[in-house]
Amino acid sequence: MAERRVRLGGELAVMTYAFVKWVVLAVLAGVFVGAGSSGFVWMLRGGEWISELIPQTPRLLLLFVGFSVSTYLIQKYAPDAKGHGTEKVIEAIHEKNAVIDVKVIPVKLAATVVTLSCGGSAGKEGPAAQIGAGIMSVFAQKFKFSEYDRKRLVVCGVSAGFAAIFGTPVAGAVFGIEVLFVGQMFYDVLFPSFISGMVSWLVSGWLGIVHPSYVITSVEAVTPGLIGCVILAGWFFGLVALLNVEIMGAIERAFSKVQAEPIVKALVGALLVALLALIVGNEYLGLGTVTLDSFVAGTAALPKSAFFWKMVFTAITLGCGGSGGVVTPIFFIGASAGAAFASTLGLDVPLFAGLGLVATLAGCANTPIAATFLGIELFGAAMGPLAALASVAAFLTVGHRGIYPSQRLARSKSPLIELSGDVERVDSPIGIFAADRSPVIMKIASFFKSRSNGGKN
């Protein structure tokens, strides 16, 4: 009996120490990242205000300036600041023991502000996540924390950055741990992630950051018919997410194969974006939050192909050397796809635009749980069951792919599919074979095997 009391007392003492330690560290993370993310947003608003003083058509010339300056800063001072920041954080956690160069923080901030202010199509979540993760990585290195603690602090930085930008502390906390692995979450980081997200959200509000707020009054009582429509919509959003992932990857690979100086690639990308803006409209430039809001409100006047054009604008911006995130464009893509789906089938546009926003994120980022909480925090509790259903459907539909190539595949999404043992990243060549040996599955496997062999069995 005495021995049991000693063990219980020892365990309680250790857990109390860990509790207090991570409360303190998570609060510090929330304060640092909340302040840093708020500064980033205010700088971005200042840059956008200056660019809006220029008439729209001449403003397209700023694309050449923005992409060139962004590329120069990244190439000269911090190559890890290239592209969308969350991907680089995931890569740092998995491959670099969560060590992030301090130079990434100012370079990412400056490059993203320039890219977005000059009209590049990107988001602000990735930079906030990378800035937040960078702050916590430098903090952990400075005070010589262990590798394990450093990784936890970096995850707290990601969660805090997401929460500060979107005003969604719960979704931010879950996103920070869910985005690392497909099919696995580490709950030991959840508590500090929640605290850092909450504190960062509060700090950003105190510093004047206004977070998005949507009201969807048309959430209906759940009926069998509505459930069927939401499942169908989730499948559609999964296809949209998969298309976005493939377009992003294809355009990035195309630019990487071009044998030219990075500045030349940036100028080519700026030219392509400017020409597209003249042809299909300038609503796809920049963050696109005004247009996004109109989709959720059901008042947008863009064509049903709007989600495709936003994919192309964003892929070119980030592929040619621009800097920014991908989550805000994914919101635009998902909301516009949801509006197109609803208007085609005669359904409620604001409702399905909101579902598209969260479900497309679930498919692209492989984060259905975070996307569900995002739907609740953005649109209200009544949206929760529908957001969960659409998000999981999209997550399954997209398969073993994602917008963040450094994500690790922890387990298969379906018991009918087994992944070969050498698969790690979602961008790895995946050897998939059927765990189910039923005739239907075997015929499907045989068909795609023959296609991959050029029609030869």
Alpha plus pi helix count: 18
Global morphology: globular
Structural class: mainly alpha
The percent of residues in helical segments reads: 55-70%
CATH topology name of the largest domain = Clc chloride channel
Domain tally: 2
Largest sheet: 2 strands, parallel
Please identify the top-level CATH class of the largest domain. Answer: Mainly Alpha
Strand content: under 5%
Number of strands: 6
InterPro entries: Cl-channel_core, ClC, ClC-type_chloride_channel
Organism: Jonquetella anthropi DSM 22815
Membrane topology: Multi-pass membrane protein
Pfam families: Voltage_CLC (PF00654)
Please characterize this protein's 3D structure.
This protein has 457 residues and is mostly helical. The chain has 2 domains: 1-207, Orthogonal Bundle (Clc chloride channel), CATH 1.10.3080.10; 224-398, Clc chloride channel (Orthogonal Bundle). Helix content is 68%, strand content 3%. The protein has 18 helices and 6 strands. Helix 3 packs antiparallel against helix 5 and helix 3 (62-77) runs antiparallel to helix 11.
